[in-house]
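Subject line: Sequence and fold of a protein, written as structure tokens
Area: Proteins and the way their chains fold up in space.
Start of record: The labelled sequence and token lines come straight after this line.
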Amino acid sequence: MLLLISPINTEEALEAIEGGADIIDVKNPKEGSLGANFPWVIKDIRKMTPEGMHVSATLGDVPYKPGTVSLAATGAVVSGADYIKVGLYGTQNYDEALEVMENVVKSVKAYDKDALVVASGYADAHRVGAVDPMEIPRVAADSGADLAMVDTAVKDGKTLFDFMDKVKLQEFNNMIHDYGIKSALAGSVKKDQLQLLYEIGCDVVGIRGAACTGGDRNNGTIHRTAVHELKNMIENF
């Protein structure tokens, strides 16, 4: 299980790198759960990240505007991101989500065929009117994306497990693997929840809050000691 850590700037990125994260995921929490950061931040973090360590970039909690999202995806891959992550926030159903993702995949792969595209839904989709998270594996597979993911849309202290229990997460993960693609799970995941995600067979776990000082994704900052502890836990499961 790979550890994805989400810094907001180069200082936090250095902490994530030194802590031993597998994927450095550039995001901007001020703009939402999967808020997008600026192209120059992605470029700067890509430059400082060791070769062989992947950089991910979130496009935001995107609207149902396939052209706008495709252009954003191109910007992210041109800026050096290896993973392009799309939060399907404004898509209300499978058809809308598929349309967005097909165009993102086309845009990204045209520039870099080796870049990986992540279709992300939300465990609490009902709170924001987004597509049912259980549709995300099919959306990802049918669009040609490389990973399917679930996160939480509203960051109010509730975690992934408040909306999807182990049985539902196992079903979600199995569906993804049945399509022959990889899974990513996130959503205010706590340190003591990592074991369960590992047992489910999750390929990538996404974390910010648990890697920050005080466990606070908004007011804390990522610290290498916390990242190292998380990485060490996963390696010893």
The longest helix spans residues 94-111.
